Amino acid sequence: MHAKLPPESLSCDVCVIGGGSAGLSAAAGAAQLGAKVVLIERGAMGGDCLNTGCVPSKSLIAAAHAAHVFTCAMALGVGDAIAPKIDFEAVHHHIHGVIGAIAPHDSVERFEGMGIKVIKEMARFTSPTELVAGRHRITARRFVVATGSRAVVPPVPGLRELDPLTNETIFDLIERPDHLLVVGGGPIGLEMAQAFRRLGSEVTIVDVAGILPRDEPEAVELIRGVLRDEGIVLHEQAKLIDPKRSEAGVSATIETAMNRYEITASHVLVAAGRKANVEDMGLELAGVKFGPKGIEVDGRLRTSNSRVFALGDVAGGPQFTHIAGYHAGIFIRNAMFGLPAKVDYSALPWVTYLDPEVAHVGLTEAEVRKAHGEVTVIVEHMDDNDRAQAERRTEGFIKLILTKRGKVLGATMVAPHAGEMISVWGLVISGKVKLADVASMIAPYPTLAEISKRAASAYFKPKLFGRLPKTWVGLVQRVLP
Prior knowledge:
The protein has 481 residues and is α/β, with parallel strands linked by helices. It has 15 helices and 23 strands. The strands form six sheets. Strands 1, 2, 3, 4, 5, 6 and 18 form a seven-stranded mixed β-sheet that branches. A five-stranded antiparallel β-sheet has the order 19-20-23-22-21. Its cofactor is FAD.
């Protein structure tokens, strides 16, 4: 038998709980600035994003896109419109190969190479200034709680007993589901629905409200049509009733205001929201206030205990990997440089990685109308874009929301690669780039990104081609030789 190691006391500048995107970024930033850092992670390094979130989901979507190319190539005069052969076990290997390729960047070895003490244990506060992790007792000048979130199973009687798939388990599948029942019409649910449909599964979505509730209605309507055209059965404003195991896998009733549908499926995926991981950490002993949505923080991401910061999903705000990295930067400026940096979500972007992608930054039209009253709305459609026409991908649009005085407060793009094109509008909203700069930029032709120049130019068109400019041009033409 191995002798039990004696307790060890550690003192550091920064103790980070959680080895996901927020925690790793905060730990690395502090260590590279010379701070003594301890990082505690009880599970897999890289957290949700690397292991069960962004990386595997986008890898699955890439495989689904490759399969979909077969079915639409004839629109370009290429090949026969035949169904592709799907080797789902190979898809599984592809997903985990991508995870494996990225994992060294988030590994224990890499962070220990930065001089960070990595402890693979569960952390629990014992006081406002101390916590324990395994045999380690740690005191720190600053603590960071970055424990992320997890999928929630909605309180549908019988659903939990089915042990449904979540984002934490669906990427472990080696065999393709014959029929996937997706509970939840948010970004995760829709991304997985479209991906599995393109890989050959029958797919049914049920949502108690409506799909993509945070996005512009025009984008939602377009995506609703795309999903149905691809053969996905979509039930909105619907209840899932009496789910139970059956010979086929799962049976249930879907109830809407008008009808009831009996459904059998081989697998159930729950994608109906997430819950912050705040349990069993002794937050009460640390004097850290928290609730159902996560840890309470101020604009500088400080908790009710000024020594403790909360970053990422657990802080109860927007749940995106890029927000986790952004939070880490706010922490570094506050804790390392002593600057009163605060979060600013006015130019917050998000992307739903469907095909076409739905990308948004800033406020929606409804939010701007509520705050400012009268607004200016500019919409340009992808069917006026030459590259979109060349690729037969004309579905989609760009929508700009401006104040009466012409300040852009929100932008939505629905198009292939919209996520790659939305960032310029974040710069415009933040004031780092002017709308006139976008209108006057030289955009390469033909590109999908020309749609941004076209939309910006549309705002100035009435002024440029109005009565006064025409009068001025007429005078100039009379004077010029």
